[in-house]
Design goal:
Layout lengths: L15 E4 L5 H8 L2 E9 L2 E11 L8 E4 L4 E5 L2 E5 L1 H7 L8 H16 L3 H16 L7
Antiparallel strand pairs: 1-5, 2-3, 3-4, 5-6
């Protein structure tokens, strides 16, 4: 007997994320409830101390500790924070951008077509004709 696996797509969701830098490390630690510590790192043959953010896990990760070093990403979803290395973050997330004018127009056309059953141009013409009829005076002759 051979088992055949079904294919599934991961449901998309939106997160808030910020990359850890020297300029924002203190503010990020404060926002996500982390603590700044120092860690030895070798740079150009010398040992230097670099800041890291240590975060306590929440939810399923309660009891775990995560470290966000410079260049890592801190991701917030529903009040929970996770740490991603650069490569993990880039492989998992795409920066959300505002829709283009063409995308907004396509959305409007789809919405009009699904609610009226007609193309946007025809719906617009019918709406204009109805407005003109409303604005025309109707004199009754007795």
């Amino acid at each position: 007997m051979t088992i055949e696996f079904d294919e599934y797509d991961r449901a998309p969701f939106t997160v808030n994320a910020k990359q850890v830098t020297l300029d924002n490390i203190e503010e990020l630690a404060q926002i996500c409830g982390g603590v700044i510590e120092k860690r030895d790192a070798k740079m150009l043959g010398a040992i230097v101390q670099l800041p890291i953010i240590r975060l306590k896990g929440t939810g399923d990760n309660r009891g775990k500790t995560f470290e966000a070093t410079l260049g890592c990403w801190i991701v917030e979803l529903k009040g929970s924070y996770r740490v991603y290395k650069e490569a993990q973050f880039q492989a998992s997330f795409v920066k959300r951008s505002a829709p283009t004018d063409d995308e907004l127009l396509a959305l409007a056309e789809d919405t009009v077509a699904s609610t009226t059953g007609m193309p946007i141009g025809e719906a617009y013409e019918r709406a204009e004709a109805a407005r003109e009829l409303e604005n025309t005076s109707h004199d009754c002759v007795a």
